[in-house]
Amino acid sequence: MAAILVVDDEEPILELLRFNLEKEGYLVSVAKDGQEALECVEKELPNLIVLDVMLPGMDGLEVCRILRLNPRFQQIPIIMLTAKGEEIDTVLGLELGADDYMTKPFSPRELLARIKARLRRLNSTQETVAQIIRGDLRIDITGFRVHVRGEETELTPKEFELLRVFATHPGKVYSRDELLDRIWGYEYDGDTRTVDVHVRHLRLKVEKDPSNPEYIETLRGIGYRFKG
């Protein structure tokens, strides 16, 4: 039975989500601020976190950043809740390692569908290859570590997953929509720019010359391909 942590300072939202999630059989814990959220994660190690951006004291973006810096928590899916129209918060959340986001007001049924998709992907996609070596890249799948030209490079969870997908299928062309569906785990309803943002950041970390990439090639109007 999956355990879910819901972090929000609005009591009606906490109760709404607790009711709907428990009805689906999930174990639910709640937190009303960022510090309490971090303490809950440390104590309970949930399978998934629903995290509001606007929290008293430490906001959700900072909570996400702190969690993604800790190897113990890097693979916990995080779905962020943000007020309608706060595009900057959405982009920052995704760049910091959030897996998904929804704008308020939201449909509990849609949130449940996304939670199920994230947990299903987490449970079913087990990589059988322990290590991938492509040129100067060494990707430790089980250890979530990447070495570039002999030196370890720190990637966010989404950057790591992008690199893993690219490197395990060299030569395959991925559209932005396909990458969103494969890595974010659902049919993304919105802008595909988040893929470009993550690819750009990934190139800065693994390419000798990001403006002339050796590994991750852009196919204009189509998507991306790994050349290794």
SSE topology:
Layout: E1 3-7, H1 11-23, E2 27-31, H2 34-44, E3 48-52, H3 60-69, E4 78-83, H4 87-96, E5 100-104, H5 108-124, E6 131-134, E7 137-140, E8 145-148, E9 151-153, H6 157-168, E10 173-175, H7 176-184, H8 193-206, E11 216-219, E12 223-226
Parallel strand pairs: 1-2, 1-3, 3-4, 4-5
Antiparallel strand pairs: 6-7, 7-8, 8-9, 10-12, 11-12
Helix pairs in contact: 2-3, 3-4, 6-8
Fold and architecture overview:
This protein has helices spanning 11-23, 34-44, 60-69, 87-96, 108-124, 157-168, 176-184, 193-206, and strands at residues 3-7, 27-31, 48-52, 78-83, 100-104, 131-134, 137-140, 145-148, 151-153, 173-175, 216-219, 223-226. The chain has a five-stranded parallel beta sheet, sandwiched between helices. A four-stranded antiparallel beta sheet has the order 6-7-8-9, covered by helices on one side. A three-stranded antiparallel beta sheet has the order 10-12-11. The protein folds into two domains: 3-124, Response regulator (Rossmann fold), CATH 3.40.50; 131-226, Winged helix-like DNA-binding domain superfamily/Winged helix DNA-binding domain (Arc Repressor Mutant, subunit A, Orthogonal Bundle). Helices cover 42% and strands 23% of the residues. With 228 residues, it is an alpha/beta fold. The model has no long low-confidence stretch (mean pLDDT 86). The termini are far apart. The protein is elongated, with a radius of gyration of 18 Å. Helix 1 links the parallel strand 1 and strand 2 (27-31). The protein contains eight helices and twelve strands.
Structure at a glance:
The protein has 228 residues and is an alpha/beta fold. It folds into two domains: 3-124, 3-Layer(aba) Sandwich (Rossmann fold); 131-226, Arc Repressor Mutant, subunit A, CATH 1.10.10.
